Amino acid sequence: MNPRITTLRAPSGHLRQLVLIRGFLILALAIATFWANRLLALPQIPITAIIVLLTFVNLFSLLRLRWQVPVVSLEITGQLLVDILAVAVLAFYTGGAANPFLSYILVPVCIAAAVLPGVYAWSLSLVAIALYGTLLVWNHPLAQLEPPSHSHRHEAGINFHLIGMWLNFALSALLISYFVVKMAAAVRQQQDTLNARREEDLRDEQLLAVATQAAGTAHELGTPLSSIKVLLADLAQDPKVHSLIGEDLTLLRNQVNECGAILQRLRQRADIEQLTHPGITAAYDYCTDLIDRWQLLRPDARADIQVQKSLLGQQTRFHPTIEQAIINVLNNAADASAKPLHVSVRTNNGKLIWEIKDQGKGFSPEAEPMLGKRPFTTKPDGLGIGLFLTHASIQRYGGTVKITTPDLGGTLTTITLPLEAAGEQ
């Protein structure tokens, strides 16, 4: 991904922040235990064991962050569950629900709601509510934490204050799990949309730069091509030169004329009317004409071509850049292998599908992430913009380009274009 594009913090970042938060928790527990021992008779062994356990978990988490294995949501859930259980056990030995520190378990619930999928967040929330409720009746009481009795209701063993605290906690946890999970999911979706839009903008900037250079180059080539045509015409009229290199001159003149024709087609395609309102054409004729033209340009390329009859009767409109995009793929496939290509053109569910398979070396796993996202080439003299422009042009008009490596080797490029929508944008 481009470094200019920022994303939501990855799970490894969440774990790193969780380690920091747990570090503050351990420090707070140590300080609170130290000062509370001067006022209360606390059970030292379980409290110390909990602090030591959390410390080991934090140290292990720091080491785990050095591994190359990615952090997953289930692991973050386990980390938060450890914090909830540790605080609950600590409260069990220090007064249960009467311990004001028990409300800390709302912190892992909030973190879960913000960074985890809904099922994990809801699970942790329900566990926290159940543990809080259990500590209302099952705990080691501390006399210093018991509220004073002001009415007969406390004498009957019902502490409405603690029950009210639990109900408040349960309501808070449920509301957080519901609303924060929905808001976090909406933020993630919005961020993904923004990232996709930024990538499209960056791609469009690159396309504009390429288009600007192409237009400038086409304009500059006109003058030298005209001069070459005049010189070749003069040479062709010289009998001595014609007798020595007459065939070569003819071939050279034909190539120069073809260059001029290419520039002329480029100027015609740049016409705003053709760009915004491409003409309606028969899909079958379009595909066969495109293949015929490509074979004229590449007489050295051999191909097994199958254009299915299902294209007959299909009417569509294609943007001028689509033709060049498909030719780029055909040229790349022809350059990749001297063996015959396999080209198949068919329709399926209102989509035009081109399958172009060569028998070359294919792309390496390292190259696959770059295909179509930036200029890239494996040719010593290649410019690296053909495949990039192909992806950009076809995706711009609702199509897709999929490049795979079959088991038998080579490269299979599948181009899918919507017959009705292509060129309407």
Describe this structure in words.
This protein has 425 residues and is of the alpha+beta class. The chain folds into three domains: 11-200, no CATH class; 202-273; 278-418, 2-Layer Sandwich (Heat Shock Protein 90), CATH 3.30.565.10. 60% of the residues lie in helices and 9% in strands. The chain has twelve helices and seven strands. The chain has helices spanning 11-36, 44-64, 73-92, 106-115, 118-137, 152-155, 160-236, 239-269, 272-276, 283-297, 320-336, 386-396; strands at residues 280-282, 303-307, 315-317, 341-348, 351-358, 400-404, 411-418. The strands form two sheets. The protein has a five-stranded mixed β-sheet. Strands 1-3 form a two-stranded antiparallel ribbon. The longest helix has 77 residues, at 160-236. The protein is elongated, with a radius of gyration of 35 Å. 21% of the residues are buried.
